[in-house]
Design a protein that fits this description.
The chain contains twelve helices and 15 strands. By secondary structure, the protein is α+β, with helices and mostly antiparallel strands. It has two domains: about 90 residues, Serine-tRNA synthetase, tRNA binding domain (Helix Hairpins, Orthogonal Bundle); about 300 residues, BirA Bifunctional Protein, domain 2 (2-Layer Sandwich), CATH 3.30.930. It starts with a helix and ends in a 23-residue tail after the last helix. The mean pLDDT is about 95.
Length: about 425
């Protein structure tokens, strides 16, 4: 969430970022609403002052009929004006919630295809084994029964593939703990305040990706980023304690409403999967450097798995609301002979922290909002796809990646 005063003082910049990100918000109308809010507030404050003065005059004796009448009139007017103020404030807040974060100067402008490759690692293979065909032939995955009990794109992992998922998680856990992240399990549901605070606002109403709980102010999380964002909600952190590094493990639930036309085969795009997510609360001056460090952790994971990838600096039109800048790590699919999305890491500056009211007290006593960052360590469904495509063999065997063999008792293949 952006501060309304920042929006007013930087109207051209906000309008440019909003347009570049593909959001449609009338900033001029937003500022008119803020002007209206201020006028309503002046009236309300005046009436509250008059009410308090009348109340003071009524103390210590029997008030006159005129004073009682005047007090009643002020009370009625105040109720009307307070209701009007709330309506304007709610409308203004709804508009502010639709304004995305400001993009950094080095973010490529334009749509998704304008994203820029900044690094490439590994030697892409010229052929591979389709993950779904392979896993189905080994009876490692069951989409049919998953659909029977929960609907399309739900599934069961079985036997060695379920063990492979666990091995990948254990490998990821070892890595993030070596890097100083505190491991956490997190709630799989969050309130609307957390959901809105994270800034996952769809560009259009038909792109909402969350599963909501009927008659409850709760939604299933799409990523552990959501409950981690709210971990220090309404708290004041001390400068000496930052940065704070957390890693949350959770199930993730997504309708994938905006996924039309994207690659969806098998486990690549599903409604439920498990994920290990890195997260950081830091000082504003630390966030750009930490963004690069989180990316380095992601790269180490994929280099140790020996799976080719490239890094892209995501274009503004594909950036999403909360991020000021985002890197995507895409692995080389030997089956489809192209790079495919796998993990990402984002610098959200103070956009989320402002919404959940997480601040830092500086050594001099001053206060400001912290910066938040997030990055995927292991997204297990897609990681399984990438590993199967790169390590499944034509003869029906699977070569276990070297770094995962300790979790299989030293076995080299399945």
């Amino acid at each position: 969430m952006l501060d309304v005063n920042f929006i007013r003082d930087n109207q051209d910049l906000v309008e440019k970022s909003t347009l570049e990100k593909g959001y449609s918000v009338d900033i001029k109308e937003l500022l008119k609403l803020d002007d209206s809010r201020k006028e309503h507030l002046k009236v309300v404050e005046t009436l509250r002052k008059d009410r308090n003065e009348i109340a003071a005059q009524m103390k210590g004796g029997k008030p006159s009929d005129d004073l009682i009448k005047k007090g009643k009139e002020i009370k009625e007017k105040l109720a009307i004006e307070e209701n009007g103020l709330k309506e304007v404030e709610d409308e203004l807040q709804a508009m502010i919630n639709q304004v995305p974060n400001i993009i950094f100067d080095d973010v490529p402008l334009g749509p998704e295809e304008n994203s820029v490759e900044v690094k490439k690692w590994g030697e892409p293979k010229k052929s591979g084994v389709d993950h779904l065909d392979f896993a189905t032939s080994r009876d490692w995955v069951d989409f049919e029964r998953g659909a029977k009990v929960a609907g399309a794109k739900f599934y069961y992992l079985k036997g060695d593939l379920a063990l492979l998922e666990n091995a990948l998680l254990q490998f990821g856990l070892k890595k993030i703990q070596e890097k100083g992240f505190t491991y956490m399990t997190v709630p799989d549901l969050v309130s609307s305040r957390i959901l809105e605070g994270c800034g996952f606002n769809p560009r259009t109403s038909d792109q909402s990706d969350e599963y909501f709980v009927e008659n409850e102010d709760l939604a299933l999380i799409a990523t552990a980023e959501m409950p981690l964002t709210g971990y220090h909600m309404d708290e004041i952190l001390e400068e000496k304690d930052l940065p704070l590094f957390y890693a949350g493990y959770s199930a993730c639930f997504r309708k994938e409403a905006g996924a039309y036309g994207k690659y969806t085969r098998g486990l690549f795009r599903v409604h439920q999967f498990n994920k290990l997510e890195m997260y950081c609360f830091c000082l504003p001056e630390q966030s750009k450097e930490i963004h690069e460090k989180i990316l380095e952790v992601e790269e180490e994971i994929w280099q140790e798995l020996n799976i080719p990838y490239h890094i892209i600096n995501i274009a503004a039109g594909d950036l999403g609301a909360p991020a000021a800048k985002k890197y995507d790590l895409e692995y080389w699919s030997p089956v489809n002979q192209k790079y495919q999305e796998l993990t990402s890491c984002s610098n959200c500056t103070d956009f989320q922290a402002r919404a959940v009211n997480c601040r830092v007290r500086r050594k001099d006593g001053s206060m400001e909002f912290v910066h938040t960052l997030n990055g995927t360590a292991i997204s297990l469904a897609r990681t399984i796809v990438a590993v199967l495509e790169n390590y499944a063999n034509e003869d029906g065997t699977f070569t276990i990646p070297g770094v995962l063999r300790p979790y299989f008792g030293g076995k080299e293949s399945l």
